[in-house]
């Protein structure tokens, strides 16, 4: 940092402090509520869920991965936050020297943004990293990307929101695009698969080696492990992919059990082996929109009623995959279409009228083409930024 920059920061009385106490952590979690108080599309995430994600004793994704959180104060008032992590599993997979930042929120002030990003960068450099990339909260398998288009709609469950001025803050600090990812939206329609495509599907799926089933709740943990195994194979060659560990699979099963229903997980088998899956979640964000991040003392009753009795009329498909040996084979493409159609039909029959499939890498042209063929439209774009250290 040069002398002029230091003088400017001092003039604006910006102080970036590490999160060190339980009070600091509470402020870190609740700070976005203040920053987005005038944004009707902001939905406060459940505070206990964010707290668990930031706790290395509860989140296996943080195991053996150094991480740090900071809050920026301007003239003594909280003005932004950021986190940084040295994701060991990412480095083992990619060996790219990238440290990650996440949980970035900030007032519209370049000096505050600079202070936060420079603080995270300096810490990552001390950890031996050669570049900083993000946002990842805290990994590619959790919330990731900075919203750059689609601010006029609220986020679906486990998707980030953002301020329209964030991209400019990043770019003025020398961050460039690493990759974009898309969210595609689907509205209820009488027919999902076009007639021209149905003939292809019928032919490919008439193969006696192909079969399907939904989630077996009596074998729930094992089925979630099957989801993870297929995911780790199917996504292996994707940009930024980091495999989920067995411990993370167990954690995922524990988190999903209260909100998942059998019809929202579909398995496709080929020649007797699990070959593809699709997983859909009810849009919990829609159910908690008026909670202000609080589940206690009585909001948990509302949540159960809205999810299990009233029903949520929005859903998101966050995960799907076809094993690599079936990639670029007609049957593999047909299985992808079939999974989406099955969960789509099951959800529309239960009153879901608005759904999202996200996120999709901009480089995954075949998937984007397929989703558009099914009536999906890109309505949000998220960007991963990077900068050398």
Explained architecture:
- With 389 residues, this protein is of the alpha+beta class.
- The chain folds into two domains: 3-179, Gcn5-related N-acetyltransferase (GNAT) (Aminopeptidase, 3-Layer(aba) Sandwich); 189-352, Gcn5-related N-acetyltransferase (GNAT) (Aminopeptidase, 3-Layer(aba) Sandwich).
- Helix content is 37%, strand content 27%.
- It contains 13 helices and 15 strands.
- It has helices at residues 3-11, 22-35, 47-53, 88-94, 110-126, 166-172, 195-205, 220-234, 246-256, 284-287, 299-310, 330-348, 365-373, and strands at 14-18, 67-74, 77-85, 98-106, 131-134, 136-137, 143-144, 146-149, 176-187, 210-214, 265-270, 273-282, 314-322, 354-361, 377-388.
- Strands 1, 2, 3, 4, 5, 8, 9, 10, 11, 12, 13, 14 and 15 form a 13-stranded mixed beta sheet that branches.
- Helix 7 crosses helix 12 and helix 8 crosses helix 9.
- Mean pLDDT is 92; it is low at 1-11.
The percentage helix is 25-40%
CATH class of the largest domain: Alpha Beta
Task: Tell me the β content.
Answer: 25-35%
Number of helices: 13
* Average pLDDT score: 92
Q: Could you give the order of the helices and strands?
A: HEHHEEHEHEEEEHEHEHHEEHHEHEHE
Distance between the termini: 13 Å
CATH A-level architecture of the largest domain: 3-Layer(aba) Sandwich
Question: Spans with pLDDT under 50 lasting ≥5 residues?
Answer: 1-11
The count of domains is: 2
- Using only C-alpha atoms, the radius of gyration works out to 22 Å
Q: Let me know the number of strands.
A: 15
Structural classification: alpha+beta
| CATH fold description of the largest domain | Aminopeptidase
CATH homologous group name of the largest domain? Gcn5-related N-acetyltransferase (GNAT)
Q: Biggest β-sheet, characterized?
A: 13 strands, mixed
- Which shape, going by the Cα principal axes? globular
InterPro entries: Acyl_CoA_acyltransferase, BcerS-like
Protein name: N-acetyltransferase domain-containing protein
């Amino acid at each position: 940092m040069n002398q002029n920059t230091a003088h400017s920061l001092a003039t604006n009385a910006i102080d970036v402090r590490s999160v060190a106490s339980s009070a600091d952590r509470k402020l870190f979690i609740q700070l976005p509520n203040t920053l987005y108080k005038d944004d009707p599309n902001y939905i406060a995430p459940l505070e206990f869920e964010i707290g668990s994600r930031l706790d290395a004793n509860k989140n296996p994704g943080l195991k053996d991965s150094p991480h740090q959180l900071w809050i920026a104060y301007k003239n003594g008032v909280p003005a932004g936050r950021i986190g940084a992590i040295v994701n060991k599993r990412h480095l083992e997979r990619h060996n790219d020297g990238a440290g990650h930042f996440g949980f970035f929120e900030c007032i519209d002030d370049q000096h505050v943004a600079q202070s936060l990003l420079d603080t995270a960068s300096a810490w990552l450099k001390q950890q031996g990293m050669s570049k900083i990339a993000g946002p990842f909260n805290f990994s590619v398998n959790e919330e990731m990307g900075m919203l750059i288009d689609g601010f006029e709609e609220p986020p679906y469950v486990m998707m980030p929101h953002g301020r329209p001025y964030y991209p400019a803050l990043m770019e003025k600090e020398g961050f460039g695009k690493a990759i974009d990812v898309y969210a595609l939206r689907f509205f209820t329609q009488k027919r999902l698969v076009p007639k021209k495509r149905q003939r292809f599907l019928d032919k490919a799926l008439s193969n006696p080696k192909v079969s399907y089933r939904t989630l077996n709740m009596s074998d729930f943990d094992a089925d979630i492990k099957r989801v993870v195994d297929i995911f780790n194979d199917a996504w292996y060659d994707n940009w930024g992919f980091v495999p989920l560990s067995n411990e993370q699979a167990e954690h995922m099963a524990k988190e999903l059990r209260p909100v998942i229903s059998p019809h929202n997980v579909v398995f496709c088998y080929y020649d007797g082996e699990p070959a593809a899956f699709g997983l859909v979640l009810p849009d919990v964000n829609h159910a908690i929109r008026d909670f202000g991040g609080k589940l206690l003392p009585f909001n948990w009753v509302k949540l159960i009623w809205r999810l299990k009795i009233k029903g949520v009329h929005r859903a998101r498909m966050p995960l799907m995959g076809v094993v690599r040996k079936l990639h670029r084979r007609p049957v593999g493409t047909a299985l992808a279409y079939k999974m989406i159609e099955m969960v789509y039909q099951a959800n529309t029959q239960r009153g879901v009228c608005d759904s999202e499939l996200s996120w999709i890498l901009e480089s995954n042209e075949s998937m984007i083409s397929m989703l558009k063929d099914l009536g999906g439209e890109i309505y949000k774009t998220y960007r991963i930024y990077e900068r050398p250290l």
